[in-house]
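User: Here's a structure from my thesis project, written as structure tokens. My advisor, Dr. K., wants to see whether a designed sequence matches the one we expressed. Can you design one independently, without my sequence as a hint?
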């Protein structure tokens, strides 16, 4: 990255920690002035300023060293900015340009245990009751009307998020989300979610549709959730790899 982007910079927006875990949201930026070598692929520079986000969860050992790192970012967003031809033209028109929503940390909010448990209960209810069990009313009950979720496919309102979950459950009827990691600090929560299921029903996309593969899918989302001083959810920031998702549903070849 530093060879391709000589003015490369990493800016930490959010940094939280609890016990053996820490998480941050990082914005990477720079000017693409030199060739970028990615494995067996070399991408020519376009001299454009680019920026992309990543959410990273770290697990530390007893000596305070990083033992594991779980990084999630949208590879598709990065490649599109590099002007790499990664999508068929028919699908390229369906992918909106991504804008980076800023995350703001308030230094003067200190949570007590009751508010921490409230924020944990919020996340668990949305995952277990709404997404896994299909009780979508939990989304409306848990997320206030001005709640926003910021993710690679766009910034969603509560109703849009509910509709997206309903559509996802229709496509993947056996959808199950595992809460792999979950921790909090003050009015922020970090979690690593693993989505699993079978791509069993078609995905309608206007005049075209994606036929189901009847194969299992799995993808990982790293999430940071922001709460107010009363433990009410304000917004969340998600990172996942859309390129992996498109490959698993058959839009792109796995080795392409």
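Assistant: Designed independently from the structure alone:
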């Amino acid at each position: 990255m530093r060879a391709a982007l000589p003015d490369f910079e990493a800016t930490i927006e959010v940094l939280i920690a609890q016990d053996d875990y820490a998480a941050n949201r990082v914005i990477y930026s720079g000017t693409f002035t030199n060739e970028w070598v990615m494995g067996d692929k070399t991408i020519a520079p376009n001299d454009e300023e680019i920026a992309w986000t990543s959410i990273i969860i770290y697990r530390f050992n007893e000596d305070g060293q990083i033992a594991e790192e779980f990084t999630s970012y949208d590879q598709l967003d990065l490649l599109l900015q590099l002007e790499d031809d990664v999508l068929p033209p028919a699908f390229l028109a369906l992918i909106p340009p991504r804008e980076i929503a800023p995350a703001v940390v308030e230094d003067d909010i200190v949570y007590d245990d009751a508010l921490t448990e409230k924020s944990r209960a919020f996340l668990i209810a949305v995952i277990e009751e709404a997404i896994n069990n299909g009780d979508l009313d939990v989304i409306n009950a848990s997320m206030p009307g001005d709640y926003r979720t910021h993710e690679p496919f766009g910034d969603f309102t509560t109703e849009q998020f509910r509709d997206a979950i309903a559509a996802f459950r229709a496509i993947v009827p056996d959808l199950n989300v595992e809460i792999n990691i979950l921790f909090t600090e003050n009015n922020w929560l970090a979690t690593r979610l693993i989505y699993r299921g079978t791509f069993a029903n078609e995905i309608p996309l206007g005049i075209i549709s994606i036929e189901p593969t009847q194969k299992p899918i799995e993808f990982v989302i790293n999430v940071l959730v922001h709460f107010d001083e009363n433990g009410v959810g304000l917004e969340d920031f998600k990172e996942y790899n859309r390129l992996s998702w498109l490959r698993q549903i058959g839009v792109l070849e796995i080795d392409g």
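When you compare it with your expressed construct, this may help: The helical segments are 75-81, 89-92, 113-132, 137-142, 158-171, 242-248.
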